[in-house]
Amino acid sequence: MKTKDPAKTVALLGVFGALTLALSFLENTLLPDLPLLPPGAKLGLSNIVTVFCGSLFGAPAAFALTALKALFAFVTRGATAGLMSLAGGLLSVCALWALLRQIGKTVSYLGVGVLCAAAHNLGQLLMSVCLTGSFALLAYGKYLLLFALATGTLTGLMLCVLVPRLRKSGGFSTIETKDT
Amino acid sequence: MKAERLGLRAGDGAIYAVLVLLCAALFLLPLLKSGNDGLTAQIVADGKTVETVALSSLEGTETRTVNGCVIVLSSDGVRVTDADCPDRLCVKTGKISRAGTAIACVPNRVVVTLRQEKNETIDGVAY
C-alpha cells in the first residue's frame, strides 16, 4: 500500500466504506424479494466498491471494508445477518486476493466479478449450514451459483467500464498502486 | 461493447467455463434420481431432528410450531406460513414438494427438508 499522500488514502477508504454501506442498504431496501429468485439472494452492488478498493489499495483494505459492512449488518439487521455478511465477504475478498495480481494480465474485472460473486454466495451458504446444522441447505447451492453468474456478470461489466475511467479521473491518479 | 474495450482476458473464459459446468452439473445430477412418492418431511431445529412426518400418511393439513416458525404439512408438500424472524425468508420460500429441497429459517435455526423414503426406491424385481 504505497501512496504519495496517506491522508488521501484514509479519506478515500472512508468514502469507500460509506459507499459499501449505502449500496448494501439500497439493495436491501429498494429491491424487493422477487419470487423467482433464491431466498436471500442479493445483487451485490457493494462488491463493485470492494473490488475497486482492493485494486487501488490491495487486499487488506478490501478485507477492512467487508468487516465494516458485516458490522453494519450486525448492528442494523442482527447477528444472523452479520455472520452471513461476514462469511460471504471474507470468501469474496479471498477470491479477489487470489486474482488481484492477475488483473489485466490473465483475467479482467469480468472474471473477478463473477468469481467474487460465486465465492460470496458460497460463503453465505456454508454459514447458513453452520448456523442451522443442516446439510440439506447445500441443495440451494445450484440456484445461488446460477444467480451469482448473473449478478457477477453485471457487477463485473460495471467494473470493466468504471475502473479505467475512475483511474484516469483526477481523484485517483495521484495514488501509486501496486500494479503501476 | 467489444471485448478489447472491456479488457477481457483468457482467464475470464476459464472462470466462466468452470462455474457454468459446475452449475450445470449441480442442476442435472438430481434429475437422475426418480419419483416424488413416499416423501418424508424432516423438521430440524437447533441442529437436532424434532420430528419426521411421512407426507403420504397425511389427510388434510397438519401444523407444527417450532422455534417461532409455523410449518404446515400436507400430502403434496410443506410450507412455512408464519415466522417471528426479521427477514421471513422461510415464508417467502413458499411451498416445497420435491425430494432434496428444503425451507430454512436461519435466524430461528429451523430447517424443513423433504426426503425420499429409502425402502421405496426399488424399481423392480426379476426372477
How do the helices and strands line up, and which of them pair or pack?
The complex is a heterodimer of chains A (180) and B (127).
Chain A: H1 6-29, H2 46-57, H3 59-77, H4 79-99, H5 109-132, H6 141-168, H7 170-173
Helix pairs in contact in A: 1-2, 1-3, 2-3, 2-6, 3-4, 4-5, 5-6
Chain B: H1 3-6, H2 10-28, E1 39-45, E2 48-54, E3 62-66, E4 69-74, E5 77-83, H3 89-93, E6 102-105, E7 110-116
Antiparallel strand pairs in B: 1-2, 1-7, 3-4, 4-5, 6-7
Task: Tell me what the structure shows.
The complex is a heterodimer of chains A (180) and B (127). Chain A has 180 residues and is mainly α. Chain A has one domain (6-173): Arp2/3 complex 21 kDa subunit ARPC3 (Orthogonal Bundle). Chain A contains seven helices and no strands. Chain A has helices spanning 6-29, 46-57, 59-77, 79-99, 109-132, 141-168, 170-173. In chain A, α2 packs antiparallel against α3 and α4 runs antiparallel to α5. Chain A is globular, with a radius of gyration of 16 Å. The mean pLDDT of chain A is 86. Chain B folds into two domains: 1-32; 34-117, mini-chromosome maintenance (MCM) complex, domain 2, CATH 2.60.320.10. Chain B contains three helices and seven strands, in the order ααβββββαββ. Chain B is an alpha+beta fold. In chain B, β4 (69-74) and β5 (77-83) form a beta hairpin. Chain B has a four-stranded antiparallel beta sheet with strand order 2-1-7-6. Chain B has a three-stranded antiparallel beta sheet with strand order 3-4-5. The interface between A and B is large, with 41 and 40 residues.
